[in-house]
Amino acid sequence: MSELIISGLHVEVETEDGPKEILKGVDLELRNGEVHAIMGPNGSGKSTLAYSIAGHPKYHITSGSVRLDGQELTGLSVDERAKAGLFLAMQYPIEVPGVSVANFLRTAKTALSGEAPKVRTWVKDVNAALERLGLDPSFSSRSLNEGFSGGEKKRNEIVQLEVLNPKFAILDETDSGLDIDALRIVSEGVNRYMESGDHGVLLITHYTRILNYVHPDFVHVFVDGRVVTEGGAELADHLEEEGYDRFIQLAKA
Amino acid sequence: MTESHLHPEASWELKDHPIPTGKEEIWRFTPLAPLAPLFAGVPRSEKRLHWVGPLPDGVTHDCYSLAECVAAGGQAPFDRIAAVAVASDKAAYIDFPAGLVLDEPYVMDVEAPAGVYYQNLNLVIGARAKLTVVLRHRGQATYGELLNVIVGEGAEVNFVSVQDWDAGSVHAGQHSFTIGKDAQVKSVTATLGGSLVRLMETASFTAPGGQLEQFGIYFADAGQFLEHRLFVDHNQPNTVSNVDYRGALQGEGARSVWVGDVLIRKQAENINTYESNKNLLLTDGCRADSVPNLEIETGEIQGAGHSSTTGRFDDEQLFYLRSRGIPETEARRLVVHGFFADIIRRIGVPEVEQRLLAEVERELEQVDLSPTPASLEQGIEEK
Ligand SMILES: Nc1ncnc2c1ncn2[C@@H]1O[C@H](COP(=O)(O)OP(=O)(O)OP(=O)(O)O)[C@@H](O)[C@H]1O
Ligand SMILES: [Mg+2]
User: Fold this and answer.
1) Helix crossing, A101-113 with B328-344: angle to 10°?
2) What DSSP state is assigned to residue B99?
3) pLDDT value for B130
4) Does a structural domain hold residue B46?
5) Are residues B213 and B339 in the same domain?
6) What is the pLDDT along chain B (383 residues), one digit of tens a residue?
7) What CATH number is attached to the domain comprising A14?
8) Which residues does B contribute to its contact with A (CB < 8 Å)?
9) What is the DSSP secondary structure assignment for residue A42, as one 8-state letter?
């Protein structure tokens, strides 16, 4: 039994005019075996939530907590949070010139598990993960994300998810910029990850298309730095038809 | 012929190169005191360095007079130290005959004990030869040199120079490529050790069609001064140059200078050039100067550009790596490693690539990359 509990999370960013509050009290509870979708208008703070949980230095948590299986994450460094079992697939994965995908994955796996992966099976495992995500094995010797197309970067995030096998994964618009086949391939990757039953996913998206493949147990509507409504998969369909307007009014009220 | 305002005129005559005062454009960054013995010159002596390993089959070695040296068509000295090297040392020639293909790199090891030395070395590479030469400097010398690499028509040459001196060494010199018709030259300069290293690296063409790629890496530690001055003279049409130098600096007083001068002469139509320099400041207290210069005398070119950046670690890169569980120190190591590997992998000679990557690893082992207290991020404030 695993759980990721976010409660009363308030987050600020530093701006030219001083600190600005972006997250205004977020409460979310994820348990293993569950897929939670977060949908909300541009600028509502979805990526801020993802980055804050992962520990990006730009975001200052002013109050609230994030607990993974009882362990408070907010005081931990970025890598310690990953070690605790957290993974963030980024909306805009970063390019790291000269660091090969293979070297990166091996270094990360070694850091997470405390021992170097077995040479015999490792290359095979990485290549198999690449292949499952429709990436040629030659990607393992390429510089991390450098020169990757938008879709290839997103696939590469899911390759990492499969190889590093965290307890909880936050996927920030992993479905954006994917072609029709890639959307299916990436969704299958997420579903494979969920198969074991002891993992959970927080899936940030603008589109219901991915939710046809990755079935959410819960849908949260995110407006102006907080969750304004929660429901089941049917909530996503309502949003698709009606838009966010009603919820934006609700948030203002 | 117009001379670039960027450079003093080259000359074989020592009297044309007065001892610099430090006010000259080409000397303005360099600490001159450690170079004093190299400016002064020593009487010609038998005190020479042994660097020639077994020569590959077909390759010959000889000594030339100054007149023969001039006739061979190498680049005359641009500065006092190269001129002193010419005046103080017999010109050594290594001849790589036309059509020679070397499967293995030819490695020259300069292993210098303490003392003042000069070297006037000429590598003459015949037409259509294909080879890799590695020139490796080690030891404790104060070392002044002129190196001419004269490349024949259609030849393909990889030239690697590694400055791997002990602490306290001083090395200043000129490395010049004279590139023949349709020849392809790739040079790699790796400057890692020595208290003061100052290399003037020049290139010019004797006919159209030549292609030049120059890669460089340098790693300046506390108290080290490393200067690379590049000068590509596009004096022939349809020639190409691409310069990419990367430096990392760490520790109090670590200094680097990179100057990239490119001159596109009136006759050099349809040329293409790009030069880039990137510096990574790993700690406080170090300084990198980076000065690209383009002087264009004709508009009829394919392209000309340059870029220069000097900065610290990219927080987004570190965050990305750390979000996968990689600890901060390890993440920094990975980024610096990648910064250099990005250049090294373009060399295309696996043996050389592996050796340089190992050198970078060795440098990195000596650096403290652990985060300073200020860069440790804050956890949640106490409520
Ligand atoms: N440095 C900053 N200065 C001012 N505002 C900022 C700063 N950084 C972030 N913000 C604001 O924070 C808000 C939340 O941004 P965030 O990226 O979390 O939104 P999002 O919900 O992920 O949007 P999208 O759907 O477009 O990805 C935005 O309005 C953004 O402009
Ligand atoms: Mg976002």
Assistant:
1) 160
2) T
3) 98
4) yes
5) no
6) 445 556 668 999 999 999 999 999 899 999 999 999 999 876 555 556 666 578 999 999 888 888 888 888 999 999 999 999 998 878 889 999 999 999 999 999 888 888 888 899 999 999 999 999 999 999 999 999 999 999 999 999 999 999 999 999 999 999 999 999 999 999 999 999 999 999 999 999 999 999 999 999 999 999 999 999 999 999 999 999 999 999 999 999 999 999 999 999 999 999 999 999 999 999 999 999 999 999 999 889 999 999 999 999 999 999 999 999 999 999 999 999 999 999 998 888 888 899 899 989 888 888 888 876 444 433 333 32
7) 3.40.50.300
8) 315-317, 319-328, 330-331, 334-335, 337-343, 345, 376-381, 383
9) T
C-alpha dihedral, B318 to B323 to B328 to B332, nearest 10°: -30
User: Cα angle at B75 between B74 and B76, to 5 degrees?
Assistant: 115
Q: Mark whether B221 and B88 lie in a shared domain.
A: yes
Range of the domain at A157: 3-252
Q: What is the pTM of this model?
A: 0.89
Domain extent at residue B49 = 14-312
Measured between beta carbons, the chain B residues lying within 8 angstroms of A92 are: none
Contact residues for A36 (Cβ-Cβ < 8 A; gap 6+)? A28, A30, A200, A201, A202, A203, A216, A217, A218, A219, A220
CA atoms within a 13 Å half-sphere pointing along the CA-CB vector of A88: 27
Residue A39 to residue A59: CA distance in whole angstroms: 21
Nearest CA to ligand 1 atom 25: A42
Q: Which residues, 6 or more positions from B65, have their beta carbon under 8 angstroms from its beta carbon?
A: B90, B91
Do residues B234 and B300 share a domain?
yes
User: Is residue B94 within 8 Å of B123, Cβ to Cβ?
Assistant: yes
- Write down which residue in B293, B312, B331 finishes a domain: B312
Query: Integer distance in angstroms from the first to the last C-alpha of chain A?
Result: 38
Strands B196-205 and A86-89: unpaired
Q: What are B57's two structure tokens? A: 């089959």
Tens-place pLDDT, residues B90-104: 888 999 999 999 999
Number of domains chain B contains = 2
Chain A CB contacts of B319 under 8 Å are 54, 56-57, 78, 94
Mutate to test the pocket of ligand 1, among A47, A207, A221 (most ligand atoms within 8 A of CB): A47
Query: Cβ distance B169 to B193 under 8 Å?
Result: yes
How far apart (Å, rounded) are the C-alpha atoms in residues A34 and A197?
Answer: 9
Task: Specify the 3-state DSSP secondary structure of B325.
Answer: coil
Measured between beta carbons, the chain A residues lying within 8 angstroms of B378 are 60
Tokens 């990198």 -> residue: B288
Angstrom distances, CA of residue B83 to CA of B14, B65, B76, B91: 5, 14, 8, 12
